[in-house]
Amino acid sequence: MYEANQIVAETLSMLKRVAEPGITTFELDRLAEELCLKRKARPAFKGYSGFPGSLCVSLNEEVVHGIPSRKCKLKNGDVLSIDFGVEYKGFFGDSAISLPIGRIDQQRQNLLNATDQSLALAIEQVQVGNRIVDISRAVQNHVEPLGYSVVRQFVGHGIGRSLHEGPEIPNFVSDGQSPRLQEGMVLAIEPMVNLGTGKVKVLRDGWTVVTADKKCSAHFEHSVALTADGPLILSSRKEFIS
Ligand code: MG
Ligand code: MG
């Protein structure tokens, strides 16, 4: 699973370097797919329930599941979220980043920073004896006091021989029993955080999820293994941004 996730990480690092004003999300998708196939991995999203791309590319008010398009050219001031998954040797990797295109305003940069930080705090909770709800709480308690909202309609997930496995990992605390974390679990933790309302809707393309108030959204994701020594970020990237 580390190998699968490192192919995802390498691809996201490559995309970060080329995602500049003028390039289309279709070109990003092509570059990702080429690198993935070169590494003998299969892009996991392509064909998933009929999804047409290898990447999910979500711009500005788009939260997740945006479709790569020849018509969509990145422009200065955009916030781009890229989600990528692969299957390699029978195991899956899944990770996402949000990044500024050219220069973005401070308000949106703050949203990106807070969402990334909430993922780091969530990962710290991946400890034997904790429960899924501890992960959820870490995200919610970090971003809500800053005035942001957590998306409730979409959640993180277990990952392994399938892209999406149990348990679900909400980014908010909910009532009821929460599964206990055990050594050997691998969790795809993915805070989706909005500048305005947490409410979202799906566009008529059947995929693209957007914020109900059209304000900006951010999405970061890592696949994290729970080892005897604590959390191990399988999709960690060499370059470190924050
Ligand atoms: Mg993902
Ligand atoms: Mg995921």
Description:
This protein is an alpha+beta fold and 242 residues long. It has a single domain (2-240), classed as Alpha-Beta Complex (Creatine Amidinohydrolase). The protein contains four helices and 15 strands. The mean pLDDT is 97. Bound molecules: magnesium ion (2 copies). One magnesium ion is lined by residues 83, 85, 94, 96, 190, 221. One magnesium ion (MG) binds at residues 94, 157, 188, 190, 221.
**Per the principal axes of the C-alpha atoms, what is the gross shape?**
globular
| Low-confidence region ranges | none
* Backbone CA Rg: 17 Å
Report mean pLDDT, rounded to a whole number: 97
Question: In percent terms, what proportion of residues is strand?
Answer: 25-35%
Number of domains: 1
Largest sheet: 5 strands, antiparallel
Number of strands: 15
Classify the fold: give the CATH topology.
Answer: Creatine Amidinohydrolase
Order of helices and strands: HHEEEEEHHEEEEEEEEEE
Distance between the termini: 24 Å
Arrangement of strands in the largest sheet: 8-7-9-14-15
CATH uppermost class: Alpha Beta
CATH architecture: Alpha-Beta Complex
What is the overall number of helices? 4
**What is the CATH homologous superfamily assignment?**
Creatinase/methionine aminopeptidase superfamily
Category from helices, strands and their pairing: alpha+beta
Bound molecules: magnesium ion
Throw out a few tags for this protein.
single chain; 242 residues; alpha+beta; Creatine Amidinohydrolase; 5-stranded antiparallel β-sheet; 4-stranded antiparallel β-sheet; 4 helices; 27% strand; binds magnesium ion
